[in-house]
Specification:
Layout (H helix, E strand, L loop, with lengths): L5 H4 L4 H30 L9 H11 L7 H13 L3 H26 L3 E2 L2 E2 L1 H4 L2 H19 L5 H25 L6 H10 L2 H9 L8 H23 L9 H4 L2 H21 L3 H13 L10
Antiparallel strand pairs: 1-2
Helix pairs in contact: 2-5, 2-14, 4-5, 4-10, 4-14, 5-7, 8-9, 10-11, 11-13, 13-14
Length: 297
């Protein structure tokens, strides 16, 4: 992990660290290519009404963009490798999570009035807002349809529905509650619902019928909190007032939250045998100049 993991905090030279990291990053890029192939397959699997084709084509331009990091779906595939799970089922989970993430971005772009997403025009900039929302809803139905291919589709769909409800709750807290009453406790609650929901799926769904599921789900929540704190660090100049932890919490409060969350994730991931998953995905993020270990220094 970031602060406590010997892999990142050792006195090894930058060159030695690069030698260690390079094969890990290469492996994860290969996994990302594999996921992209699966997303391409599923995005064209079902017939679409002719009048929807222009909308779906625009969706796919963004969904299949090379600008997508596929962090959440890579986590699910790494889970299959670390715990010897069914790889095809974990790839399907990755596709489903990517599509859910995409639909949330479609709706976010409408709310925020964004014009670019992954280097492509957003749906709301290409079409009317109401059409962008409708096509986002359509893609939501598509991912539920694909979920029916999972061996435990009933359980998967229940968790997907809960994740959508959590996402909505998190956005409401972020936009209506935090600006008026900013505090760390409410921020953590917001992140658990908004950012944590998809990472909970990424870590949890591969273990959905095992006794490790609750712990894996909790790992997703902890990783989501670290991810959001770092995202806030990058966006503190552009985020709305008091929607970003760097707007209202002290440096010591943020560092304490980061360190305690990191410790919990280190302990829990080790407990269920997925410490390599967390370490590898952080290495991958750092290859994108993300999750710099010294950002709170």
């Amino acid at each position: 992990m970031l602060k406590n993991n010997d892999f990142h905090s050792s006195v090894a030279t930058r060159e030695n660290r690069s030698e260690i990291e390079e094969p890990i990053v290469k492996k994860l890029y290969l996994i990302r290519s594999e996921i992209d192939e699966k997303i391409t397959f599923y995005s064209t699997k079902n017939p679409v009404h002719p009048d929807l084709v222009p909308f779906v084509n625009e969706c796919n331009c963004i969904l299949l963009s090379t600008g997508a990091k596929r962090i959440r779906s890579i986590i699910s595939v790494l889970m299959s490798e670390s715990l010897d799970l069914d790889r095809e089922q974990c790839l399907l989970i990755g596709v489903i999570i990517e599509m859910l993430h995409f639909t949330s971005l479609v709706h976010d772009d409408v709310i925020d009035g964004e014009t670019l997403r992954r280097g492509h025009p957003t749906l709301n900039s290409r079409f009317a807002n109401n059409h962008a929302v409708l096509i986002g809803d359509f893609m939501m139905c598509e991912l539920i349809t694909h979920s029916m291919d999972h061996n435990y589709s009933d359980k998967v769909i229940r968790l997907l529905v809960q994740a959508v409800k959590d996402l909505v709750t998190g956005v409401i807290i972020e936009q209506r509650v935090l600006p008026k009453k900013p505090n760390v406790a409410k921020y953590i609650e917001m992140v658990e619902h908004k950012t944590g929901s998809l990472f909970q799926l990424a870590f949890g769904l591969p273990l959905i019928i095992t006794e490790k599921f609750p712990s894996a789900y909790a790992c997703g929540n902890l990783f989501g909190l670290l991810f959001q704190i770092y995202d806030d660090f990058l966006d503190q100049e552009t985020d709305g007032q008091n929607q970003n932890i760097f707007h209202f919490a002290s440096a010591s409060e943020i560092k304490e939250l980061w360190d305690s969350t990191n410790e919990q994730l280190t302990s829990l991931s080790s407990e269920i045998g997925i410490e390599a998953v967390v370490s590898d995905i952080i290495c991958y993020l750092q290859s994108h100049d993300y999750f710099r270990p010294d950002f709170l220094s």
